[in-house]
Automatic annotation (TrEMBL):
Name of the gene encoding the protein in the UniProt record: aat
Name of this protein: Leucyl/phenylalanyl-tRNA--protein transferase
Pfam families: Leu_Phe_trans
Upper classification of the organism: Bacteria, Pseudomonadati, Thermodesulfobacteriota, Syntrophobacteria, Syntrophobacterales
GO CC, any one term: cytoplasm
Record's function text: Functions in the N-end rule pathway of protein degradation where it conjugates Leu, Phe and, less efficiently, Met from aminoacyl-tRNAs to the N-termini of proteins containing an N-terminal arginine or lysine.
Protein source organism: Thermodesulforhabdus norvegica
Enzyme class: transferase
Subcellular location: Cytoplasm
Length: 249
């Protein structure tokens, strides 16, 4: 097994050189320049306090095409009733910390250690990292965050403190990204939950090809302020063409 050790030079080995588990390199730093280089090459950091920084490019790769998001009948009812209010980039710092806190409360290990949180907060301040928030009665109850380059969105983590809160955030994100002609949401690693919502596995070579195409477009940099309510009406009104799929609960 060959794992590359990074130096101060801003360079990564080709993703196809990763080992069978997807581990490609170790070391380096979490500077904005290195993180953006990594994402643009189909690589992401994933590690914990017991290890140095580890860089991954798994094969296959889990992706979700925005137009293929699957909404169960029960979730569609939740969306129509307006139980949650959804916003973008209004509480990034709280969302990323909640993603970590929920895992810790469940006794699970988290990769969202302080230096990782600080790194993504810097990307948010630079306009590359974004959050989707789900609110109930003025309280933050769910959400997700990720990185956007070109017309690709790299999902990092999500959390939920109320039933369906994170699902609603993902569905609204997919609707917004579809309206903006984004090519895919990178879900990174296999997840039965995300597969039920429409995510599929593709070979790494295919993913890298799709990524190259997505990066040919300019990045939606800065704070995202989509008209969420209008987009919901377009996608949830029966008279529309319904570009999203539905399935029974």
């Amino acid at each position: 097994m060959t794992v590359f050790r990074l130096t101060e030079e801003l360079i990564f080995p080709h993703p196809e050189l990763a080992d069978e588990d997807g581990l490609l390199a170790v070391g380096g730093d979490l500077s904005p320049a290195r993180l953006l280089l990594a994402y643009s090459a189909g690589i992401f950091p994933w590690y914990d306090e017991s290890t140095p920084i580890l860089w991954w490019s798994p094969d296959p790769r889990l992706i979700l095409l925005p137009r293929d998001i699957k909404i169960s009948h029960s979730l569609r009812r939740v969306l129509k009733k307006g139980r949650f209010r959804v916003s973008f980039d209004q509480a990034f710092h709280r969302v990323i910390r909640e993603c970590a806190a929920v895992r810790v409360e469940k006794g699970l290990q988290t990769w969202l250690i302080p230096e990782m949180i600080e790194a993504y907060e810097r990307l948010h301040e630079l306009g590359f990292a974004h959050s989707v928030e789900t609110w109930m009665e003025g309280k933050l109850v769910g959400g997700l965050y990720g990185v956007s380059l070109g017309r690709a969105f790299f999902g990092e983590s999500m959390f939920s403190r109320e039933k369906d809160a994170s699902k609603v955030a993902l569905v609204i994100l997919a609707m917004v990204l579809q309206s903006w002609n984004f090519h895919f949401i990178d879900c990174q690693l296999p997840s039965d939950h995300l597969k039920r919502m429409g995510a599929v596995e593709v070979p790494r070579a295919k993913f890298l090809e799709m990524l190259r195409e997505a990066l040919k477009h300019p990045t939606y940099r800065g704070r995202w302020e989509p008209t969420v309510e209008a987009i919901q009406r377009i996608y949830l009104t029966p008279r529309s063409e319904k570009p999203v799929k539905t399935e029974r609960s």
